[in-house]
TrEMBL record, chain A:
Its main location: membrane. GO terms for cellular component: plasma membrane. It is a multi-pass membrane protein. The chain crosses the membrane at residues 60-81, 90-112, 132-157, 187-206, 218-245, 257-274. This is Branched-chain amino acid transport system permease protein. The keyword Transmembrane applies.
From TrEMBL, chain B:
It holds the Pfam family BCA_ABC_TP_C. Keywords: ATP-binding, Nucleotide-binding, Transport. The keyword Metal-binding does not apply. This is Amino acid/amide ABC transporter ATP-binding protein 1 (HAAT family). One of its GO terms (cellular component) is plasma membrane.
Amino acid sequence: MFYAQLIVNGLVQGLIVGLAALAVTLVFGVARFANAATGDTMTFGAYAALIGHKATGSLVVAGGAAVGATALLSLTVYALVFRKLAGRSVVALLVTSIGVGFLLRSVLGIVFGHNQQLFTVPLVRPIRFNGLIINPFDLQLAAVAAVALVGVFLVLYATPIGRRMRAVADNRELALVSGIRPERVMIALWLLVGAVTGVAGMMLGMKTIVSPELGWEMLLPAFAAAILGGIGSPVGAVLAGLLLGVAQELSTPFVGFTYKLSISFVVLLLVLLVRPRGLFGRLEGVR
Amino acid sequence: MSLQITDIRKAFGGFQALDGVTLTVGEGQLVGLIGPNGAGKSTLFSVVSGFIEADTGEVRFKGADLGRQSPAARARKGLLRTFQVPREFSHLTVRDNLKAAAPGQTGEGLVGLFLRPGEVARQEVEITAKADEVIAFLRLGPVADLPSGRLSGGQKKLLELGRALMVEPSLILLDEPFAGVNPVLIEELVERIRELNARGIGFLIIEHDLQALTRLVPILHVMDRGRILASGTPGEVLEDPKVREAYLGGAA
């Protein structure tokens, strides 16, 4: 029963990792680089949600603020930075994204200070179900994550722009010859990625404590999940995120709370050694 | 004139790949382009389709100078190309491959997608119908919902042709459409190209399979070392001693 409880706790954590990994994998698949600013963009989303929540006390407003502000930030960073570097090497883009992350973290530190801030959510009596303790707030968060996921997958698989995003991710050169406008695809991509990252950041902030370092620490699990899921595979990223979240929670009795993050390292190493294309991978995605 | 290529030159380092190529393809004509390996045929295709820029010379399409227009812009004008090694969006289904290539979709931007969902839905119906029409025409029905990466080489060539057909083409450049395709599918491809030509679509075809090509095209150009060596009907051209020496000698 103890372990079942850990699994339940791990699922919410896993949804957060999964959303972050989804953002990483979408950028990697379409824009073709590992975006190390993903974590700090999440932090931005958490602060946006915090402001929205403090001003109105409404979680819906908090969510809207996180999604809207982070999507705009994401698009702005693309327009000012990544667009200018299109066609440069993967390393140049990766290093640039690390720089963008640093900048975001520093600005958030200056503006909001390094004090830890909390979402003040009303305490509710937990639901007991066959001895399992489930926090209703976790259920709400899980519902938010589910809505976000359904939204992303609908855009990706049921709309013309999603089809074109997948086409560009699949074969960029061919997409160009086929008359697909890359700029439009990129704008849609960064808005979508920003929205997903915002939701992930808000959830992380609500589950833990909001500080400027909040998202940075999520970067490794997010990358690990993206690689485990097979880089470029959206479904894989989400499932791998869930797996990783649960694995981290399950490991706490053995390695302690402090080291549960290290599980991501272990998973990352194992995947790269044993199955470099990930669980749902496609090698040709990494060109 | 549909396509007018005038005195195109292109050097890669010290190698003169195209050394003053002049060639025209009339409205709705079927024209073949042959020559030994390294003659510059594929380079010429890349220049015409906008993949590489010529050093000098001019490409005009339907009378207008194409200048430095991107491949995508040329595609939207109706000048399409296929590749020697077929390319496809390998994780997309055959139908989605075709739908992705349909031009002028309102839903290709997020703004249009969310502000005009009705229009997007209507276009989706049209585009799907058009894709299904192309699928039926190319006899790709049985594989329409498979990821295109799983198609055979010949089916991928058909899909390439299909993607070009989604754009209302007026001229399609085919780069070795019969290479690596089994004989049954070659017949299939020849038939489809004939039918499309009967609808007024022009073709410029690079091909090494002379038997299949000469049955298809009334006009043949031979390239060698970056120049047009001879032009005429297949009969005339293949009898030309210069061609026999350069092409057949070079191929041996």
